[in-house]
Amino acid sequence: MINVIIVIAWRDLLAQLRSRSFLVQTLLLPFILTLLIGNAIGGTRKVDPLPVALVGSGEISQSIGALLEQSGLAKVHGLPDASSAEKAVRTGEATIAVVLPERLESKVLRSDPLEVRILIDPTSHQRGEVVKQLVQGYMQQLEAARAAILGGVRALAPSTAQELQSTLTLIRAKVEKQFQVASIDLQTKEASGRSQGIFAYYAVAFGVMFTLLSATNGAGGVIDELERGTIHRLLAAPVTPVLLLVSKFLALWLLGVWQLGAFAIFSSLIYGVSWGAPLAVLPVLLATAAAAAGFGGIIIGISRSREQLNTLSLVFVLVMSLLGGSMWPLETLPGAAQVLSKFTYNRWSIEAFQLTALGSSDPHLYLATGVLFAMAVVGVVFGSFQLNRRFRQ
Amino acid sequence: MALLMPTLETPRPFFLLMIYGTMLGVVLVVKNLQKRYDKFIAVHDVSFHVQRGEVYGLLGPNGAGKSSTIRVLSCLAKPDSGSVVIDGSDIVQEQAKVKRTIGIVPQDFALYDDFSALENLVFFGRLYGISGRDLKIRAQELLEAVGLLERSHEAVGTFSGGMKRRINIAAGLMHKPKMLYLDEPTVGIDPQSRRKILDLVKTLNASGLTVLYTTHYMEEAEELCHRIGVIDQGKIIAEGTLAQMRQLAGETAPIRLELREPLAASQLEQLKTLVDEIIAEENTLTLFARDPKDALSGILQMLSSFGAHVHHLELDEPDLETVFLKLTGRRLRD
Question: How far is the alpha carbon of A236 from chain B, nearest alpha carbon, in Å?
Fold first, then answer.
């Protein structure tokens, strides 16, 4: 029984490993893509400051501009009015625009309502949000200062002309003092997070994505066999449907292990990407390969022909890679996408590998590994059920 | 026709079928086999048996139920009713044993194109538990038998259709089966390759191998098969040796005519007075006459009086095509 499983699985594995297109797709392409995209997006470069359009005049406006420039996150250029600021955001000249009200200083003193408009390009919403928080923080500081002055003025009650003169002098001095905008010492420093830099992130992300692609390749092999009739020849030999299914999924799993394992070894040797301690990486690698085999099972289960499988797998892998963090870092995804990403293999695998790379034994690592194995079981059961139905036809 | 059917008409207990098979040297006994796919009955109450060392032909047009029958006999589909006993083992109860007894050569090239001929044979041999030296020797023997020893290390994907067909047969023989199913093994190949395959089947049979051969080529059935079962619309409509089948066709022999224009119904009625039976398909006529040579001059005179132009005329000896035409009103290749 085991002999039959090994014979069939080994044949499938050998067929893929002999295929030049498979080797290009599963080894060469992830290497090239990691090199190109990892360097283009991240690599060793520093964080580029965002172009920020600032509308406003006076001391407060200058102070906000200086604060943003000092943060290193923004490159500020002044614009005359709100419409030109909005145009700058729409045309991509600025990622964020801060529109301050006219005569801001006198409005502050008169306690007039203040309306500060901030326009953000949603494609850079994360860094735009940081700039917005900086401006909001500054305005809150301004509001606190105004309250303090108002309190001081209300506490004064002059009774003589001399006292009035003296009070006015004090108020002027206080206002002058308060409105000498205090310089804020803002220091921005780059620090690699969980992904150990964007290059390492993309190595893991592409490794996972290409494991899914290799699983679809293997799944395509099963569909080819159904169409060619070799599956039926196997079933006419002393091979039961269960043995055949176990063999096919074993091959898909081994294919994933081989592909991801080889990529992990070579990317750490050539690019210096750290995947973590081998003993910690192994369970995640096995779980990811199993999940990929499960994905292969789902693709087999829903495809009626090779053409259909090619189209469906392309759509599934693309969507899962977009949502699951293989195209851009998970942290940059908007809220809804963050929720949807939990249904993708990519997310759980990338998160698990990020944790192994840090040498973390966070419970999330075990959760992610468990989820991957669970996804594998669901996919294999579904694929087996569907394949078994087709065997009987 | 009843005379030609095997003497298994009355229902018998299952164990008697097994004893029958073992005692009388019968390898395969199919009794009242039925297989349906949803509402479509692919195999309808089929019964036949195959003697040890015999080449039994299942002859019928495409879609007649030959491959569906083979699927059931190969343990790839469960019969809905009826029984099949192969070498004393029931195909439902003792599937593992049956699978080792039979060799399958499917209609498709069920081979791995990316593997060499030798690798394909070794792979299929391993599935039957053959290993080591025995495996290599068996593969080499078969490659030699099918005339592909010199190309044993080339990928099957580079082979011609005929060569693939031969490797397909070799793969079905790796485990030395007692009985070989050949499902339309000559479809889509050139005459030279076809000849090689027919000769190979003869050689295998001469070495004692029992063969179940499905085809829609009557010439192949006539050349190879000791007995033939004619199958149409899922039913065996005639069975016997070639001589018995010719007898079934009677004294009649077909005259095939191709006319420029189809005849009118009244003209066909008049023509019927000269022959036993007419099958008209547009401008093609197949006429059955007891003495076709005598009838021919009268037929041509009548056609001339109708103003009909004869393009093509064929006068055949009674053959399986005649039997099929006579029984179904259709040609085998329809």
Answer: 6
